[in-house]
Amino acid sequence: xxxxxxxxxxxxxxxxxxxxxxxxxxxxxxxxxxxxxxxxxxxxxxxxxxxxxxxxxxxxxxxxxxxxxxxxxxxxxxxxxxxxxxxxxxxxxxxxxxxxxxxxxxxxxxxxxxxxxxxxxxxxxxxxxxxxxxxxxxxxxxxxxxxxxxxxxxxxxxxxxxxxxxxxxxxxxxxxxxxxxxxxxxxxxxxxxxxxxxxxxxxxxxxxxxxxxxxxxxxxx
Amino acid sequence: xxxxxxxxxxxxxxxxxxxxxxxxxxxxxxxxxxxxxxxxxxxxxxxxxxxxxxxxxxxxxxxxxxxxxxxxxxxxxxxxxxxxxxxxxxxxxxxxxxxxxxxxxxxxxxxxxxxxxxxxxxxxxxxxxxxxxxxxxxxxxxxxxxxxxxxxxxxxxxxxxxxxxxxxxxxxxxxxxxxxxxxxxxxxxxxxxxxxxxxxxxxxxxxxxxxxxxxxxxxxx
Lengths: 221, 221
Description:
2 copies of one chain form a homodimer.
Chain A: E1 4-8, H1 13-24, E2 28-35, H2 41-55, E3 59-64, H3 67-71, H4 100-115, E4 119-121, H5 137-150, E5 158-160, H6 168-177, H7 200-212
Parallel strand pairs in A: 1-2, 1-4, 2-3, 4-5
Helix pairs in contact in A: 4-5, 6-7
């Protein structure tokens, strides 16, 4: 069995913890990051590189997906759509990027085939999340099946989503317990030096620390 | 029901016929083409544009997928791997691009969601093909399910693959019968003004015309 895991890492808390969990299981980590003209592209890439170093990653892919801009349709890419700051609402928010994880996982499937990885990790969180349809366990299981049907290799890829059923507070506790360097991570949707504290992503993160009774090591405005 | 079909069009014979079949069914066609640093990128794009004109397309996406070069691992992208010219062999050939149709369909799924398309077409051919795993009906059905699970819209996307069970000779006959402008299409894997006639793709095309008892309107070396 291959002991290589391809870990999709955004630079955020969830995918960082997922990658550290794969390392803890003994996998050699191949790190995968995507730039898709998101507002926080530069900051996320910097975090990805620092986290990769902390993980001891030797092989990494940093892919430019410029075409996302041509698809648009999200506040995270299209600067004419405002990032909401008044609280997490019901339904699919304007920060939703159409089928982002589907595209990410398909590209990851191609790399996993090329590199002979038996595992692919993604930090999706279903329940305590922003309500994106491509963060649901049922979707991830379906695309795992698609990847295995559509690739040539004899190695079957298993998509690990160790956080899918956790609450943000549980993720915070688990990360702190495992010495995951959360000070190197970035969750905010806005492009600034300090996290805004009021976008959906900051709210979910801060609430997680709050419920866990722990304090967030990153700086807020 | 939406009457828009998003048609993935490479500039080749199969995807061209598939798009004309969608038009015949009454759909408004949105054309989608991918540049992925394939050897024949320039030629394929030229064909795509001419075919789109012939189809009367008003809305089209021409996306640059530069990251394919970073994945590599195919004779169609990596110039250090020779395109075979001695005949179609058993198994997955070196021209296979890892999970290409998986990536194409995921991106198409995002655009279909944004544009509100109820149908997405792809010109895959399973039996009489080059033996790529991501051209099989079972795979396409699986990724259709993944796209519908992972996207937000209420519209369900149906992936149409009208040629999947046809032989190349049947595709040629159908295209000629329906006045599809085959002289505008390109199938050759090599980058030249005239088709080489000896790569797998040329061989499959020429054999199709031969079995159909028809002559190919494009020029060969």
